[in-house]
Description:
alpha/beta, Rossmann fold, 2 domains, binds ligand GMT
Amino acid sequence: xxxxxTCYPVYGGSGVVATELGKALAARGHEIHFIAYSMPxxxxxxxxNITFHEVHVNAYPLFEYPPYTLNLTSKMVDVVRFEQLDVxxxxxxxxHATSAVLARQIxxxxxxxxxxxxxxxxxxxxxVGQDPSFLPVVTWSIEQSDGVTAVSEYxxxxxxxxxxxxxxxTVVPNFIDTVRFRRQKKDHFKKVxxxxxxxxxxxxxxxxxxxxxxxxxxxxxxxxxEDMPLKLLxxxxxxxxxxxxxxxxxxxVMDDVRFMGKQECVEEILSIADVFxxxxxxxxxxxxxxxxxxxxxxxxxxxTGGLPELVVDGETGFLCPLGDIDAFTAATRRILTEDGLxxxxxxxxxxxxxxxxxxxxxxxxxxxxxxxxxxxxAARV
Length: 381
Ligand code: GMT
């Protein structure tokens, strides 16, 4: 199949999933065309069957707000026409689904019928999408899509409930390459980052406010106060990074906290981690937690959104009430101190990642979805 993929190319789960999907589909023989305003960051080296098409945004002085949605639409029209795509698959509804539906209408006038598949990822529904300034167009664009997928059952029901979307939504969970994401021997990292054999807590996020990153430092400080030999690695960057650092200074734990910034090979850091903390206020899936699980790292996460579909409470980690620092601290302490618990949870985490969320299990679900959508579209023509 010739598949056009549009996503946000910056750091963030939806861009990662879209890019990894494109790479996996290309490896399975499909021809992939990424259409985005810059090269997706995980598209790090040349791969046969993958082409990148950059969307240029016209910055004419009259436009205080350049109409990116229209530039994207025009690019989609051009790529579909020229590359004879079979399907456009857009990740994140705003504005990608809208552009794709518009491109489909433009192309229909010249007899080209291009089905649109929209994958919903999270804040396009749970946060931004519900803003009245977006809601009608988000609902319309999703309903107009030929196929719609959501990354968790939670997101599917939120979309139906909050955006009042009436069409079918297929749940296709996020996935991971469990060959790349596995526990590796990284003794040199361990030597530098936990020189005295301290246990290592890790948090990876884009430090947006909904990630509740300062809570990670609160949990860490409480455990350090118990004289537990520990280090905390914070990976990523974003708006709350400064507040998190200030909190770590106030709590007097900076000597044991390391801000690592954005890291390409997060699996190397996860390879020396003992517990992954995800205190998010909202999370439709929690891809970063899955990456940790695949590297044998138990996860302590909020009982919110789609996280209970990923983290099995008491088996692969623990789920705690939102914002409950005491509960997060107790759960982390248990994993680090209870006889054999860490090993059991680490094994169970890896097993769950491989059995339920491996790329080779999930990508065929997308292929099946495309096939069904193409069949329905062909029947309509
Ligand atoms: O979490 C973010 O801020 C990034 C966001 C995105 O849209 O790129 O992530 C969402 O999509 C990921 C991939 O499907 C999910 O793993 C994240 O849980 C989801 N984030 C939220 O729901 C907050």
